[in-house]
Every structure is written in C-alpha cells, then in structure tokens.
Prior knowledge:
Blueprint: H1 5-56, H2 74-80, E1 82-86, E2 121-128, E3 131-137, E4 144-150, E5 154-156, E6 167-170, E7 174-181, E8 184-193, E9 200-209, E10 214-217, E11 223-228, E12 231-236, E13 249-253
Amino acid sequence: MALLPQQAICSRQAASGQEANLIYQFNEAALDVKKTFATAAALIGVVGCAVACAATVDADPPRCNETSVAEASPLDGVKLVSAGNITAGTALHLEFVPGEVCDPRKSRPGWCTPNVAPGTAGVLIHRYKSWACVVVPGRGKLATASGWIPASRWSADSSASTSSWLGIWQNDHAKLSVTATDDRLHVVGNAIWQGPGDPHFGSFTLEAPLGSDVVGLSDECEVQIRKVGNFLFALDNKRCGGMNVSFDGLYRYRGDLNP
C-alpha cells in the first residue's frame, strides 16, 4: 500500500532517528572498547613497573650456619663446602647479617668483639655478593661458630689435609669415632639433643673403603661425612635419632681422646 506524503515523511524521520540511535550506540561501544584497552594498558604498565621495581630490590641474604647447605641432599651438601682460612689483617667478628653493623646492646655478650684471629682455619659454606659464610672453631674444645665475613678476608685452601680420618671428632652435639681395620674405615656416630624434658639420642655405624673422599650411610638414616681440610663435615636427613637429633655440622679433631 502506498504511503501518503505525510506518512512517508514520518517514516523517513523514524528511520533517521533509528540510524542516529545506532550510530550513537556504536560510538558508545567504541568508547567502551577504548576505555577497556586503556585500562588494560595501564594495568600492564603497573605490573611491569612492579616487576621491574621488584627486580631492583635485593632479596634477603641466605642463611649462614652449618646447615645452610642442607637444602641440597646430604651427599650434594657435603660436596659444596670447602676448606680455607682467615687471611692476614685485623681480627674479625662473625656477622649474622652481611654488612650489618654489630650492636652490642642487641647481641649476645661478646658477640660484637672481634674474636676470629687471622690464620684461623675453617670451612666455607657459601658466598653472597662480597661476603663469605664460614664455620670456624669456637671457644673450648667442642664449640663451632658460623657467620659472615668479607670474602676478601677468606683464602681457599685446596691442599691435601695433613691429618687422617682416624680418631675422635666432636662438636657440641655429636661425636664421630673413626677406626680402621685392613682396608676399611669404621665410623660410629652418637648425637644428643637436650630439650626441656628428657634428652633425645641418635646413633649410626658405617663402613667405607680407606681413601674415600666421602663416607656415608644411605638407609632410612642417611648421613654423609667428608674430610674438609683438618675437619670433618657431616649432613644427615634428620632420621638418625629422636626428635631434633642431628649429625649436621663441623667436627673438630680431639687428639686428646682415643677411639
């Protein structure tokens, strides 16, 4: 049916209105898309900045103690340490945090006093930037002490050890008794942990060929022992005795005792 002139005009006006509305809706949608992309770009920029900023912030330094290599397996861990000594210069104190100024008011008595003499032999656990984490003999016959020193004050010693495996080796929580028959080493280990109640104990025995670089026991109780300079160094899997009993650490030779 043909439209009257007035009806045709109204029809054209309605169509124009619909077109205008569609154009408006399209422009609004395009604007929303632009806003979405702008927001996403801003978020990407923020995330990128956060990642970049985080990369410029130093992570916390690794721990420094005799079990700092315990994240590795006992066998891998004992192979990571090496012998050395404090070089000539002033006496040093072992720092808990590398580069931190030791405050006597916040530390144990005498902790900030330089008490590690030049020439002191020990074991390097690992390095961090310009610092070396070392373990050295402490006061008395059993104690050991660990901490950070400037890496420039540590000298590696790759020469062969002048002492044999045989004898008694101790620290403040464990003892290793090493003997030999024919071509075999025999190691007996005993450890103790004293908590608030009764003490907990641990023990093991193992054999290995004479001349071994590392001797160990791979069982439910795994313990690995290596001769490092004039010390023994051991790591275990924490299954060699009662709760908290461990054979980890540096062992000092006790020439005054017989196995």
